[in-house]
Request: fold
Amino acid sequence: MDKSKKYLIVGLGLLGGKYALELTKAGYHVDGINRSEANLQWALDNGYIRTGKTHDFEDLVAGADHIIFGLYPTALLEWFQTYGHLLKAGCVFTDVSGVKTGLVEPIQALCGPGVEFIASHPMAGRETSGVQHAAEVNFAPANFIITPTEKNTPEAIEWVRQLAQTLGFEHITTLSCAEHDKMIGYVSQLCHAIAVSLMCANDNTSLSEYTGDSFRDLTRIARINDKMWAELFLWNRDNLIAEIDQFDGALQQLKADLIRGDREGLEEMFRLSTRRRAAFDKK
Reply:
């Protein structure tokens, strides 16, 4: 990556803030655009960005060589429909969005000559939010997924790979947009759906007085950003519904074993889950 290039972060939230912090620490010129004046000022005061604006930011957009969009899918699409024409030829940009189908194709279609969108997903979110918590995020153990299409050049794919490496990601993979969204429906969205459902199933305000680590670990992600996750669930609803149905099938099997008093059936499920978790832990 060329350190003479100007980077622009649009959306200084948890991940956008972490990108700004790591790129600045690595010696890159980083500017920011953010809706909240207070959060933008915090990023400026703490040296995450050189300059930033909440409005009248057309000059920052037009001068950027690379842009990272830390916006929700709907906001990103709306933003690009309004300001996308300002991106200069040669600008290569990416995002942090947790869904790709329905987002990547429309934005790529809006790109002007010489402007390229290479989508990616840093799977490093936390139950906290905001630029003030960005430094708490650890990219090293997290997965970074690149989701190229036939419209992407090898140079842009290599740029986003180098970006991930500069940010500190140690595991970088490539999936199609459809593969990404199917996978994310299971390993991320279904997990959040289960945690939320578990917390909503019992109105017990004294749980902390007698629960153990199993409940605490299982429901950690139930402390959730309502607006972001509602949007991600709805954008990926077909995949998530399919995963909920599959999970419900496994839960119903366990219930049926309980009703029948089938100890061997329960033990076989436990052995299967143990084998699969052991294989997962080895990777």
About this structure: The mean pLDDT is 93. The chain has two domains: 6-175, 180-282.
